[in-house]
Specification:
The complex is a heterodimer of chains A (264) and B (354). Chain A is α/β, with parallel strands linked by helices. Chain A is 30% helix and 24% strand. Chain B folds into two domains: 83 residues; 207 residues, MetI-like (MetI-like fold, Orthogonal Bundle). Classes of the chains: A alpha/beta (264), B mainly alpha (354).
Chain lengths: 264, 354
Amino acid sequence: MTALPDGGRADAIGVRLAGISHEYVLDTGTLRVLEDIDFAVPPGSFTALLGPSGSGKSTILRIVAGLEAPSRGRVFAGNVAIDGPDPSRAVVFQDATLFPWRNVWRNVALGPEARGSVRSGRAAQHDPRIVRALERVGLTAFATALPHQLSGGMAQRVALARALIGDPAVLLLDEPLGKLDALTRGVLQRELADLWQSSGFTALLVTHDVDEALILADRIIVLSERPGRIVADLAVNIERPRHRTGPNFVALRSAVLGWLGLQD
Amino acid sequence: MSSVGELDAMPPAGSVPSLAISPAALEQPAFDEQPARVRTTVRPEAAGYASCLVWIAAAAVTWRLPDVRPLYTTTHLAALTGAVAAAICGWLAAAHFQPLLARRLRAVAPWLLVLGGAALVWQFVTAKFALLPMPFFPPPQTILDAYENDGPLLLLSAAYSLRLLALGFTLGLIVGFFTGVAMGWWPRANYWLHPIVRTIGPIPATAWLPLAFVVLPTSFTASIFILALATWFPVTFLTWSGVRAVNRSYYDVARTLGASQWFLIWKVAVPAALPSIFVGIFMGLGTSFVTLLAAEMLGVKAGLGWYVTWAQGWAAYPKVYAALAIMALLFSGLISILFKVRNRLLAWERGSIR
């Protein structure tokens, strides 16, 4: 653990979306997925994007990651306009998407290797960054296991280590726990909160799990159905570690469900 | 919104964070455990004894039963058959003390038995009673004779074939691989190369033989070109389709980690396409065998294809069989080597397809 005291970090940067609209061109016409998305994520904060399927929340994440350019509007990381992917903005996807031909540590080493800061040889296994990244997610014993030998939760931990090894300023989480069983999900939510607190990165989480957003985020942005618009922007002022049964938690949960149109 | 329903079913606050058990212990690793080998003394079964007996019988028949026509190598063949019999019977004896040898013997004994039976039958129907028409079904003695008298020429031919195959196949493999990667990666390369691959590729490489021998300076280079062409098409096609089929999200992951285009090609696209590329290499090796024999029938002075054509011209069928046997060993050996390479490089694939 390289715990920075209180998670504060000097190089933390925020993310700002200014007037983002996005549409996909299909054979049958254009599909508007986002309309006038405008919000800023302060440095070091944890923001959750919540919305029904098809609300374009994953598209927002892909735009911030630089994997897609918005049809209109601009995105900034700090003061710099985003025009492509950058290792300072790491992504954890819903599927772990580990490279099946690489064992665990080689998957974790992917980022440093791609940036040329670690050799692909066997010696790199003992590179302190890789050792530490595996320690952080508790997978030291599985360094040489192949992805198909891992359970879903372990695979997602490897993906997390792979994203965090470059010490990114921004971590983008695209429903990273969406496919896990409830128990593993609960454990990993807790670990994710710890990692955020100790590493001090800016986090943007996409989820459709209201409790997950409430457990992890300082702030919840609720999106409408397609085309996605911001319908609510709620601060989550609950003391950590959070419990699902606390009075604030329960009250906020019904508020969020109300904004999602799920409360009678 | 089914997930909201699930939320109610989640355990209450106190129970999930009870992390007395380490998180790692909560998740069962999916390691496949090797089934423990049962360590018992395996008795060699009937097939072992039977094959020992059958090979002794084959040796005895070859040696003692008179040939219909005098054959020079009958005693040599009898000695050879006897040596095989001795080896099998020795193995059988040793198997009584060594469980490992016993297990190995049990695995191959049925085949040893069938082969011994075949050797016996072959003696009866050719050398001893001449039940099959000559010269198309020669006795094994005459094939042994071919090896004894034509050994150097056969070895030279094998070496020539191997050289031609190595040069042509390697050239086709390299060019095919790069053509396929380029087509799979750059749309512009695909635009220009795809029609060419589609039209030229399906033409059997041997069809170009007459042209190649005229256009290229020597028959040797012409043969190499034809072999390379035969290998190139399947390797190109399967490399291309393998690269095209790579899961797009691998690229997303690599790009967010700061990968350059070269990294995306060599560390993402190519390894991900490798299973498909190997299918292409296997197909290429197969077509190159066919093409090798055709190319060697023209314009070479040694080579297994040339030897077969030459021997057939003299109606020397035992020599044809002798060359065919060498081909069988050589080609299946090459396939085995390729399998070994494949299994090594694609070890990660084992168990990942469920």
